[in-house]
Write a structure and sequence with these properties.
By secondary structure, the protein is an alpha/beta fold. Helix content is 38%, strand content 16%. The chain folds into two domains: 98 residues, Leucine Dehydrogenase, chain A, domain 1 (Rossmann fold); 135 residues, Rossmann fold (3-Layer(aba) Sandwich), CATH 3.40.50.720.
Length: 298
Amino acid sequence: MSNTPNIIDGLHVASLVRDEVRCDVNDWLAAGNRPPKLQVILVGANQASKVYVGAKTRACNEVGIESETIVLPDTTSEKILKERIQELNNDDSVDGILVQLPLPSHMTPLAVIESIDYRKDVDGFHPMNVGRLTIGQPCYRSCTPAGIMHLLKHYSLSPRSKHVVVVGASNIVGSPAAIMLSRENDEGKATTTICHKYTKDLTLHTISADMVIVAAGVPGLITGQMIKEGAIVVDVGMNRIPDPTTERGYRLVGDCDYDSVAEKASWITPVPGGVGPMTVAMLMKNTLLAAKKAVYPD
């Protein structure tokens, strides 16, 4: 008898978050404040980056946040990019600064991120925000793992006392997600294992997990044989694979083999429509927080 898992619907939950932000922005404006403003910097012509920036701009327009995008050629030097960032750091009309990743190969991403004023780092990547996250202090939280935590809370899927395996140890998703899950607060208290490309016998870890969060960027990495019956599975992967039957010539798949994993999981995120929409929704929340100076008050 086949299993039909419950769907963790990121599209629906993200729409609720955007509605909440829109209402908060309206209240903020009604109190006589200027609109929150997000400044995006896009370096180069990476097609996926253009798509992501477009989605962020549309979300800003929807909730009442001003958004501008600076587009720089991929030949831009790191020095010039940092100078542009410094101008935005000094601009009191800008609340949030987002440098779209990836950057051209001649740039050092961490050095660029560190040049952003941490009080405007609405992506949550600056070492100041990561450090404060680690010790449980107020900060801007990285948007994708924050979105995962919001999804789990919405569906009452508490990680407390569960064994959670995070597959992927990036600074953007895997590592901050593991920190959030293991913190001793209302949304954490999980026993957390971090796996990555150097992990021997990945199945040994995933098969024992009550919850598996996959952010490895490898299509179909996790199969049904690798998870236990009734596990909660959150698939962060967003991979384009060729598909000549589609108009675009490709389709989006996650890091899980959805059909086989769905046979075992109690809850699962679809791809697309799972975690992805939450990333942009949480960016809207962070930008509003920055405008209110709610995390780092003057």
